[in-house]
Design brief:
With about 290 residues, this protein is α/β, with parallel strands linked by helices. Helix content is about 35%, strand content about 15%. It has a five-stranded parallel sheet, with helices on both faces. Helix 5 crosses helix 11. The longest helix has 20 residues. It is elongated, with a radius of gyration of 22 Å.
């Protein structure tokens, strides 16, 4: 007979002692528990990805065989069918007062044994930012680091849907990403962001905000190569005038004239295995903790 579980659904952003009190009241009494993490959009109030939240809960309950953690799509409501019971779990008043928002403000180092980093990959459209960002994230996760990816296309579909591609909107887009990134970095997460970021002044602002935790990575790829890679035909449409404010055609991309200090990396967008070049740079400059390796 298949085991039946008690299902708990939430954002768990982050999972804190109030949540743990409720889960433990079941799991520590021999009951099976399934913790479902809602895959919510990332924004300033929900900065952690579903996979990061899932991993944190799994770490907490790694020795408890009664607890299973899954990620589910975000939900509008819960409909309970016939034969499936439901109940409300009462927690002590001091537990009810625990605020996830306040915990995010006060608590750091949730996910790594070292400080977080903001690895900011920038370059022309189709330079290879997303591809390299994904490869780097996968490699760092393989070595036990907690990583969150923030990608331009995805973010614009979630917390930046109201923004266009004017200079002002591009700057506001980066400002919002920086706000989310700061929360993640302060909690020990390695954030890998992949955005065009065409203006030097914007990259300088990021450097000023994050200091030594900011690692800019210029994906240096020629416009000819970028256009060859463009499967969506955006470069061609921009050259025809069908797309305005397109970086590299009718909107400028400012190459770094002065290296950002103390750290900066330039990688060849046409070369293979550049994720290892970045990792070696991070190790050389002692920017990666050894605790999770």
């Amino acid at each position: 007979m298949t085991d039946k579980y008690n299902l708990f659904i939430g954002r768990w952003s982050p999972f804190h002692e109030g949540h743990k009190y409720i889960i433990d009241s079941f799991a520590n009494n021999g009951k099976k528990v399934c913790i479902a993490v809602r895959d919510t959009y990332i924004d300033s109030k929900n900065p952690f990805s579903a996979e990061l939240r899932k991993r944190r809960i799994e770490d907490i309950y790694k020795d408890n065989q009664n607890v299973k953690v899954i990620v589910i799509p975000d939900i509008e409501q819960v409909a309970v069918g016939r034969g499936v019971g439901y109940s409300l779990v009462e927690a002590p008043e001091q537990i009810q007062k625990v605020s996830g928002t306040e915990i995010r403000k006060l608590t750091t180092d949730f996910y790594n044994y070292g400080e977080g980093l903001l690895i900011w990959m920038y370059g022309l459209p189709c330079a290879g930012k997303t591809y390299l960002g994904d490869k780097l994230a996968k490699e760092l996760e393989h070595h036990g680091y907690s990583v969150q990816r923030l990608d331009g296309d995805i973010v614009r579909k979630s917390m930046c849907t109201d923004l266009g591609f004017s200079k002002e909107d591009r700057i506001e887009n980066i400002r919002r990403i920086a706000e989310v990134s700061k929360t993640l970095v302060n909690h020990g997460v390695i954030v890998i962001s992949t955005f065009i970021t065409p203006y030097e002044e914007t990259r300088k602002v990021l450097s000023d905000v994050f200091g030594e935790k900011f690692i800019p990575v210029w994906i240096k790829t020629s416009s000819d190569i970028c256009e060859e890679r463009d499967t969506k035909g955006m470069w061609a449409r921009a050259r025809k005038g069908d797309i305005t404010d397109f970086t590299g055609v009718n909107d400028p991309f400012e190459e770094p004239s002065t290296p950002i200090k103390p750290y900066n990396i330039t990688v060849d967008g046409t070369a293979n295995r550049q994720e290892f070049t970045i990792i070696e740079y991070l190790k050389k400059n002692t920017l990666l903790s050894n605790a999770n390796q």
